[in-house]
Design brief:
The chain is mainly α. The protein contains 6 helices and 3 strands; from the N terminus they run βαββααααα. The mean pLDDT is about 85.
Length: about 140
Amino acid sequence: RDHADTSIQDYKVFVNPSLSDVVATTTAEALAMGKFVVCADHPSNRFFSRFPNCLIYRDSTEFTQCLRTALSSSPKPLAPDELHALTWEAATERFLDVADVDKWQAPLEAALDTILHAAHNGMTGVEKLRQLVGA
């Protein structure tokens, strides 16, 4: 079942105990749906810690406390900027910021230009090669 299935709309808590789910799409979907998320203190969950409905635990005692908090209270509505942060558009923006494509593109293009310029000058400066290719 996916997040749109009406049979899961009444649940208000999503527990993600995984320490290996580095994408954590289900966690993002649960937060975007206005659910509490209970998840482990792990680098893959660090992004979610800024959301008020994300309850992070470090051990079994904290897990129990987080679960009790979630079950005994109501999730807070997310602000528009928090909802936007959970979209694929925002995820792509974060990826491009981290990848910083422009930072690498300019030096690579400059290096390629230098190599091609040197190859062109080298080939056109050899008269026999020029005659061989019909110049």
